Amino acid sequence: METQAADDGTPLDASVTSVASDPPASIGGWDVRSADPDYRAAVLDLLGALAYGELSAFERLAEDAKFAPGLVDKAALAKMASNEYQHYQQLHDRLVEVGADPTAVMTPFVEPLEAFHRMTAPSDWLEGLVKAYVGDAIATDFYREVAVRLDDDTRDLVLSVSSDTGHAQFAVDRIRQAIEADPRVGGRLALWGRRLMGEALSQSQRVVAERDALSNLLVGGADLQGFDLVEVGKMFNRITEAHTRRMAALGLAS
Amino acid sequence: METQAADDGTPLDASVTSVASDPPASIGGWDVRSADPDYRAAVLDLLGALAYGELSAFERLAEDAKFAPGLVDKAALAKMASNEYQHYQQLHDRLVEVGADPTAVMTPFVEPLEAFHRMTAPSDWLEGLVKAYVGDAIATDFYREVAVRLDDDTRDLVLSVSSDTGHAQFAVDRIRQAIEADPRVGGRLALWGRRLMGEALSQSQRVVAERDALSNLLVGGADLQGFDLVEVGKMFNRITEAHTRRMAALGLAS
């Protein structure tokens, strides 16, 4: 991947991510772990949230494609949307494979995600790009952090669907061009980035509060190694720091 | 594919198509034929129209997905949209392969297609389904009719991207269910189907009038075997008849 230098000269590519420095050892495969009903419920919650997130990302990217300033940008957004759909399909198929009903598993996450989208409807092409970039990156960071603590099969799936769909570099390039052409755009988009992060945190807290299985997974209730409240705090710090670095890479103050 | 019986008892599946009864013999590969600049221009026009049509179909299906009554329907529409995008990608890559600029080749068809979509904006989920089904089928019929007269390479590509993306049976099932639940829906959708066919013909005539290369291809100006005005008339008859049969299969008078 092409890398770009940040203002301080540090090489910085578009897909800055936060990854826990010491991934814990494998906890075994799905076949073994899923015998624990709490663990199973937690993983289904996680996959349901991820699946609806992909379907929702498909919709938002397709919507943004309508506002693309030209055919090249329109096709680029359509491609990303199509990739998100492929990820959805992988998650859907896995849910069926483990005997879950994809619709039932996704349903609890529809309203929180739609609330996030209602609160953060982009007013133009650039706000849409920043939202796609920032939103996707925060979600990817979160899933990668959680993935390393899951059984091997679930981890591989989550990492696979969290892979970069080409969003990042595309958005960074377009946003930087727009700020170069009109520096005032930077101030507006910086505010927008803060609002996105705030709403994302607010809806995540709501989901964690409402979904016992998922919060047990996060705070170690499902017997996961060393994933206690201190670790959760550290994880959110890493995600916030990665967000700050990404905003800086765009030339935006977070 | 599952087949369903029409009112008169004829077995009828959702993907009724009109295919010329006597496909003409091969006219050779692209390498040979494209030496003729008129032929090359005509094929680029055709691929440009088809490529923008796929991108536009992606957008419309993604838009319709927003109005889906549930997650299963939403995901079904997203899958079809994603398939349309894959077709677009194939056409885009082929245009690049033969040294054409995809954007330049697609641009003449943006306005006619957008005009069609402006004139036929569905007001609800069912109108969107009928539009996707009818619009896709008419376009497929047209391209399959033309394809058999093209060089082997272009023909294979056109037939490949005109393959059913799963639209047909899905739309037929949903529309029939809706008419069964409320027969008055049938009258409204029958009117809608006529309007769609009328607008499609009107925009097609506009394109043919404005694009010399494409109309030469249709009336044999590019030295294609036996594709004269009489044949063109017959082709439009076959397409209209297939449309009538499809509407009947839906339980709608055309």
TrEMBL record, chains A, B:
Chain segments carrying region Disordered: 1-31
Ferritin-like domain location: 38-221
Entries under SUPFAM superfamilies matching the protein: Ferritin-like
Coiled coil (residue ranges): none
Domain of life: Bacteria
Gene3D superfamilies noted in UniProt: 1.20.1260.10
CDD domains in alphabetical order: Ferritin_like
One Pfam family from the record: MiaE_2
Protein's recorded name: Ferritin-like domain-containing protein
Species per Swiss-Prot/TrEMBL record: Kitasatospora gansuensis
Upper lineage: Bacteria, Bacillati, Actinomycetota, Actinomycetes, Kitasatosporales
